[in-house]
Amino acid sequence: MIKAGIIGATGYAGAEIAKILYSHPEVAIVSYGSKSYEGEDFSEIYGQFRNLINENCSPDDLDALVNKADVIFTATPQGYLAGKLTKELLSKCKFIDLSADYRLTDVDIYEKWYKIKHQSPDLIKEAVYGLCEINREQIKHTRLLANPGCFTTCSILTAYPLVKEGLIDPSTLIIDALSGVTGAGRGAKTANLYCEVNESAKPYGVAVHRHTPEIEEQLSKACGKNFNLNFTPHLVPMNRGILATEYASLVNVNGRLPSEKTIRAAYEKYYKDEYFIRLLPDGKYPETKFVEHTNFVDIGFKVDPRTNRIIMMGAIDNLVKGAAGQAVQNMNIMFGLPENTGLKFSV
């Protein structure tokens, strides 16, 4: 059995990791770490675990945890793991970090967008960006996994094949994304109160959202050149889910614009064997309710011949494929298990 520890187990993403690992046939959870609820019964915080998990929340003690865990999930704020992780700790245990501490390869960009100083920049080069369907081979051999952000997972996977194949001009890419309120975390914030969110939708982080450089970096790697894009997130009154709608200009290939058949062939080239990516039939478009509580990514597209642009759409559950589910999928890859182990659920 893989012995797993969770730091930040009482946040939304941490609790989702606990839920998935509880039913995982190859995992035993050895620690539910929580700074906010240290010493309290985990099942009293999340009542769905009553009579299932009888463990108190433990302190966030990485030095002790690395000696009893094979892998540690850190569902913690930016800066936590970067401020504590050392090569000695990494020599004893694998880490899967759900923050942005090791997602960006340029420490200056991290510090600019996240407004904090990186405490372990020497470890960035060792980290692997854990977008499973794209970086699978590197993930197999890493001991430090940077789990992608929720917006980035949806945005990158929706556009990746077309960027990689040169069918769209990435510099024209515009991404509008809708998110449920759990994407903002479990902390008490006035903007996320029921009366503030219900019956309303609003953009936020306009032109400054911190997932922007993450999307740009990964898609720039795909096309082999750096570019900038517009990314605008929106908060909508639902608990969970992300819907990304992306627009880009098509590129002439051999003197003509790519057809919908060509576009579909590009998606199938990269995703036809991917268990967790579902390319929808023509005329069908993603809906968040059909990916809720699953690790699936649903993708659809439509070519607009009037404007010579393409509209790409993707949907995920921000807490599963956008966080905990992808983290467990990464764990499965890192430990040589089938990727869908413990993740074949849909409710």
Comma- or semicolon-separated keywords:
347 residues; alpha/beta; Rossmann fold; Dihydrodipicolinate Reductase, domain 2; 2 domains; seven-stranded mixed β-sheet; six-stranded parallel β-sheet; 13 strands; 19% strand
In a few lines, what is going on in this structure?
This protein is of the alpha/beta class and 347 residues long.
Q: Your description of this structure?
A:
The chain has 347 residues and is α/β, with parallel strands linked by helices. It has two domains: 2-126, NAD(P)-binding Rossmann-like Domain (Rossmann fold); 151-318, Dihydrodipicolinate Reductase, domain 2. The protein has helices at residues 12-22, 42-45, 62-65, 80-84, 87-90, 107-114, 132-140, 150-164, 194-197, 212-223, 260-271, 320-334, and strands at residues 2-7, 27-33, 71-74, 94-97, 128-129, 144-146, 174-179, 202-203, 230-235, 242-249, 277-279, 297-304, 309-316. The protein has a seven-stranded mixed beta sheet with strand order 8-9-7-10-13-12-11. Helix 1 (12-22) links the parallel strand 1 (2-7) and strand 2. Helix 1 crosses helix 12. The longest helix is centred in the middle third of the chain and has 15 residues, at 150-164.
Overall average pLDDT: 95
Class computed from helices, strands and strand pairing: alpha/beta
Count the DSSP helices: 12
Beta strands, count: 13
One letter per element, helices H and strands E, the order comes to: EHEHHEHHEHEHEHEHEHEEHEEEH
State the helical fraction.
Answer: 25-40%
Cα(first) to Cα(last) distance is 26 Å
Which strand order does the major sheet show?
A: 8-9-7-10-13-12-11
Question: What amount of the residues lies in strands?
Answer: 15-25%
Low-pLDDT regions:
none
What is the name of the CATH architecture of the largest domain?
A: 2-Layer Sandwich
CATH superfamily membership of the largest domain, which one? Dihydrodipicolinate Reductase, domain 2
Q: Shape, please?
A: globular
The radius of gyration computed from the alpha-carbon positions, rounded to a whole number of angstroms, is 20 Å
CATH fold descriptor of the largest domain: Dihydrodipicolinate Reductase, domain 2
Q: Provide the CATH top-level class of the largest domain.
A: Alpha Beta
